[in-house]
Design brief:
Layout lengths: L1 H27 L1 H5 L5 H32 L2 H21 L3 H4 L2 H29 L7 H29 L2 H6 L4 H4 L1 H12 L6 H8 L7 H8 L1 H32 L4 H29 L1 H23 L4 H28 L6 H18 L1 H12 L1 H20 L11
Helix pairs in contact: 1-3, 1-4, 1-6, 1-7, 1-10, 1-13, 3-4, 3-6, 3-17, 4-6, 4-10, 6-7, 6-17, 7-14, 7-16, 13-14, 13-15, 13-16, 13-17, 13-18, 13-19, 14-15, 14-16, 15-16, 15-19, 18-19
């Protein structure tokens, strides 16, 4: 179980590091490197649009990897998703900018971002199932907490490396080549992840399906036929987790540096502090869900997020680093309270034959609805109606998630087999 916990944690940490490295670069530098002929606003929107491409690709990845995860097993699919995600990320660090390749530079950037999304679309479901299907009954929330901590650690590592580069390099050096270093580190991280994941065994729940020759022939078709309600409501429940995260990180990083005029290093520091709140909320909620229930815990997090959305931008607009750290930390803590139990909750909603496909698709569909559009919508809202409108948008997403989870059952007592 220790090896399973480590494998599920390290894999998701690496994959989300890759994903968040791009988000941080999109907020800070990609508009200059790949869209230099656009205005600041349109360049930021173009950069966030390439960022959103991966979210559109994630449901595709969840169906492709989910098919094989439900047909041939969790372990082999997790190795493939790690390779695709990691190598796509590293190649962004090698990609010449607009000044060298012209229009081909943003086209290739979009392609690599799409492949990133496909890889991540297959990652989370497999990592969550690896932990949950190995865990003893009554402790599934605890073991699912390990892959759920991957985003916290991946985000902290990505932000920390950008902070170090930002503080140690001149602005010209950072924009010329420094931003590429976090992407290139993915080569090393992929090797570490592969070493760990190749040592784990298939989950006993799915191994029994294989031994009994009961694997689904068409998992994607079967899951949509048998579990349409769980897919849609599960995706709806994830909307606020994604919306909070990408508003408080990618969008607020761009908003703080470009609109409020706060230094890049200061904003990255506040995000590092906020990430600790995310980890705390994730661990607390995931582990407590074994006793208090998944549904109740997620509802509490969504309810708090309704209120925090309205407080987020008044605190941001103060321009005070301590209040900004509080704003972002509170948002990410709410996100963690919702996100932590989902590592067990979404897998428990689906039967074993289609669990990889169902949990992955619901999770990543929620990413499209909550994460892909959040920085784009927030940028437009702020430009047209001011920052308060972005807070109302966050609260509205929280209400949607709350209503969706209200329509779902409690699952902690369910058998996984």
């Amino acid at each position: 179980m220790r090896r399973v916990a480590v494998a599920s944690f390290i894999g998701t940490a690496i994959e989300f590091y890759d994903f968040y490295v791009y988000g941080t670069a999109a907020a800070l530098v990609l508009n200059d490197a790949f869209f230099p002929n656009l205005s600041d606003l349109n360049g930021t929107l173009a950069s966030f649009s390439t960022y959103a491409v991966a979210f559109a690709a994630r449901p595709i990845g969840s169906l492709v990897f989910g098919h094989f995860g439900d047909r041939v097993g969790r372990k082999s699919v997790l190795v493939a998703s790690l390779l695709l995600m990691g190598l796509s990320t590293a190649c962004v660090g090698l990609l010449p900018g607009y000044g060298t390749l012209g229009v081909w530079a943003p086209i290739l950037l979009v392609l690599l971002r799409f492949l990133q999304g496909v890889g991540l679309g297959g990652e989370w479901g497999g990592a969550a199932l690896l932990a949950v299907e190995h865990a003893p009954r009554g402790r599934r929330g605890l073991f699912a907490a390990f892959p759920q901590l991957g985003p916290s650690v991946g985000f902290f590592a990505a932000t920390g490396i950008f902070w170090l580069l930002s503080e140690s390099l001149s602005d010209d050096a950072f924009k010329a080549w420094g931003w590429r270093v976090p992407f290139l580190l993915s080569f090393l991280l992929v090797a570490v992840g592969l070493f760990v994941r190749l040592k784990i065994s298939e989950t006993p729940v799915f191994q029994k399906v294989m031994d009994d020759q009961e694997a689904s022939r068409a998992p994607a078709l079967e899951v949509f036929k048998r579990h349409p309600k769980e897919i849609l409501l599960g995706a709806g429940g994830m909307i606020i987790a994604y919306g909070l995260f990408y508003t408080a990180t990618t969008y607020c990083l761009a908003y703080g540096t470009k609109t409020l005029g706060i230094g890049r290093g200061t904003m990255l520091t506040t995000q590092l502090v906020a990430c600790l709140f995310l980890a705390a909320g994730t661990w607390l909620a995931a582990t407590r869900s074994d006793a208090g229930g998944r549904r109740k815990t997620v509802l509490i997090g969504s309810g708090i997020a309704v209120a925090w959305g309205l407080a987020l931008f008044p605190l941001m607009d103060s321009g005070q680093p301590v209040l900004i750290a509080l704003a972002l930390g509170g948002a990410l803590f709410c996100m963690g309270v919702v996100y932590g139990p989902m590592g067990a909750y979404l897998p428990e909603l689906f039967s074993v034959r289609v669990r990889y496909s169902g949990a992955s698709f619901a999770y990543n569909l929620g990413g499209v609805l909550g994460g892909a559009v959040a920085p784009l919508v927030a940028t437009r809202l702020q430009g047209s109606f001011g920052s308060a409108s972005v807070g109302w948008y966050v609260s509205a997403m929280a209400v949607v998630s709350l209503l969706c989870v209200l329509a779902l059952p409690e699952t902690r007592e369910r058998e996984l087999a």
